[in-house]
Amino acid sequence: MTLTNWEIAQLLTRWLLYFGISSVVGGLFAFCLLRQQSALLSRIKGYVRGGALIGVAATIAYFFILVGGTMEEGLWLMFDPMMVSIYWDSPAGSTLIANVIGYCLVIIASFTLGSDRAFSLWPFSRLSLIVASLGIASLIYSFSLTGHATAQAWYYQIIFFAHILIAAWWLGLLFPLWLVIRSATAEESNKVLEHFGKLAAYAVLVLIVCGAWMSFILTGWQGLFSTDYGFWLLVKLALVVAILVMAAYHKLHLVPLILERGNTTLIQKSILMEKMIASSILVVTAIFTTFVGPPVH
After folding, report:
1. Closest by Cα among 48, 61, 60, 40 to 19
2. Distance between the two ends of the chain, CA-based, in angstroms?
3. Are 243 and 167 in contact (CB under 8 A)?
4. Is 5 in a helix, a strand, or coil?
5. CB count, 10 Å around CB of 144?
6. What is the 3-state secondary structure (H, E, C) of 213-239?
7. 18-33, pLDDT tens digit by residue?
8. Burial of 191 per CB tally in 10 Å (0-12, 13-18, 19+)
9. Tens digit of pLDDT for each residue in 220-255?
10. How far apart are CA 176 and CA 184, in angstroms?
């Protein structure tokens, strides 16, 4: 696959968009999961806001790169009024609006996090919970406006939304977990990771079932070795298997070692490696949504 400069720019901004969504979803949940770690909450807020700002910038950049990439005649065409108007009235414009609204709502919600009196029990005020939920809903909804999901039935859309939400939750939580392991005591780290492991076991099961079902609906599991889509699907599957193996290794081996050895050095390094694999999964997902589509079956 040979990519033009415009296509490389599309791929990069798409990856940053996925990073932003993962940071927002995972960061907001981390604020609840790690609410007892008061020293880290400001950094988690920064993680959420930073992810949202990156997402806004990537969304806007992606829109104008789509405009400019139409003719591939120079950067000036990105801002051509006629071409911008055409794309603004297309699904690309609707996606831009949904994403910007979603990220802005998340940023607004982040300023009220932890302001409730019962913060030690629940860090979201009623207002921040409503605003954050609307923001995440807008971000997830944007995925239904373009790509293969637009031609699918309503029940596929629901499964698709669940798949995106759980994936963003899992991948976006890795950085906050790494932060808490670096600063918390061995006992606190063990408690947090045990809690996360229990939640992740159910979430990952749903994620796998959703992903397998969607891939079957789109491909019938045909052409996996003869099409570009099949190739990248297998690459993504291999990366998912790798990250699942690492997650199981954490839960069954490294987490119990925290209390035995009294330090978290090994699991810190392992989570960083897991984060690298997660970033690779986002790259492959960006390739899926930007350059290849499922084969007709």
Report:
1. 48
2. 23
3. no
4. helix
5. 20
6. HHHHHHHCCCCCCCCHHHHHHHHHHHH
7. 999 999 999 988 887 7
8. middle
9. 777 677 778 788 888 888 988 888 888 888 777 777
10. 12
